[in-house]
Every structure is written in structure tokens, then in C-alpha cells.
Write a structure and sequence with these properties.
Elements (H helix, E strand, L loop, with lengths): L4 E3 L3 E5 L2 E5 L4 E3 L22 E5 L9 E4 L5 E3 L13 E3 L8 E5 L2 E4 L11 E3 L5 E2 L6 E3 L1 E7 L2 E4 L5 E3 L1
Antiparallel strand pairs: 1-4, 2-3, 5-9, 6-7, 6-8, 8-9, 10-15, 11-12, 11-14, 13-16, 14-15
Length: 165
């Protein structure tokens, strides 16, 4: 065990309008070795090759759906038919979240979902209510949000949007 010695310095104390100079030439000694404390809470999971954010859910959110932030800064579903969502799509929810709970939103990189069955030669678009589709939209906003790597894995990559007339 090592003993840590710290020399104290002069301290000027103001006490109700009076100034008191305190001189102390004593030493402070650490008599025990410190130990590491308990681990803190686990952070949000990091996505493969991408990044993730956390925002409070403004509505009940399902997993694997695209979201935007509403005027209060809460996560809600992005929708291709709402012009105000243009340019504001954050990313895809990694799981479900109830209103007021933190929703993890992956902004890029790989995401796998066993129930998906994507066609490999077509991009993935934003649909209604945050849903993903490989059918190009004919009205509203055309926004490619990613592309399939396999039938069950996508690479989230939000591209330039197009307003459809």
C-alpha cells in the first residue's frame, strides 16, 4: 500500500466581512487503497456499421419503422404523404417503445429482421406510417431509406428525397 501525501496551501476565508488567513502545514494521508465501484447502466446498443440515437416516443412505436420528431421533439412515424416530414426522417426504430419511453433509432448501417423478405435488386422506400416498402411511391414524398443486403438484412442509408406531384 502506498501513502499519498498532499501538502495543504494557504486559504483565505471571508467570514461576515472579516478576512481570515488560515495557514496549515499539516499533511493529509490516504490510509487505504481505493477499489473500483460497481458498473454503471449499460448504454444503448451500437448498430453494426451505423449509429443510433434515443428520443422519447410520442406515440406507441413498433420496431423497424421510420420516424421523425414532432414539434415537441418526440419520435413519431414518418409518412410519405405528409410534406412536413420531408427532410426530417431520422432513421428506423430498433424495437417497440410506449409513449414517453426512450425509443432507439438507428440512423444508418445494417439492421436484420427475420420476417423481412426483400428483393435484392430494388431500393427500400418510406411508406405510410413509417412502414418500409419496395414499391416506388406515385404521390407524396419519394424517399429511399435503404437497400437490401440479404432478404432479411437492410443497410439504412437515407437518400435525397423527391416531391411527387
Amino acid at each position: 500500500m502506498e501513502i499519498l501525501e498532499i501538502l495543504t496551501e494557504q486559504v483565505l476565508v471571508f467570514d461576515g466581512g472579516e478576512s481570515i488567513l488560515v495557514l496549515d502545514d499539516g499533511r493529509i494521508e490516504a490510509l487505504d487503497v481505493a477499489e473500483q465501484g460497481p458498473p454503471g447502466p449499460q448504454g444503448i446498443p451500437g448498430p453494426t456499421g451505423g449509429s443510433a440515437l434515443q428520443y422519447l416516443a410520442g406515440i406507441a412505436l413498433g420496431g423497424h419503422r421510420m420516424v421523425v420528431l414532432d414539434d415537441a421533439g418526440l419520435a413519431i412515424y414518418a409518412d410519405k404523404s405528409i410534406p412536413a416530414h420531408a427532410g426530417k426522417v431520422l432513421g428506423m426504430t430498433t424495437g417497440a417503445a410506449n409513449p414517453g419511453e426512450l425509443a432507439t433509432i438507428q440512423t444508418g448501417g445494417e439492421m436484420t429482421e427475420p420476417s423481412w423478405s426483400w428483393l435484392l435488386n430494388q431500393p427500400i422506400y418510406l411508406g405510410a406510417n413509417g412502414l418500409l416498402t419496395q414499391t416506388p411511391p406515385v404521390t407524396g414524398i419519394s424517399l429511399i431509406v435503404g437497400f437490401p443486403i440479404t432478404a432479411t438484412k437492410v443497410f439504412i442509408s437515407i437518400k435525397q428525397l423527391i416531391f411527387l406531384i
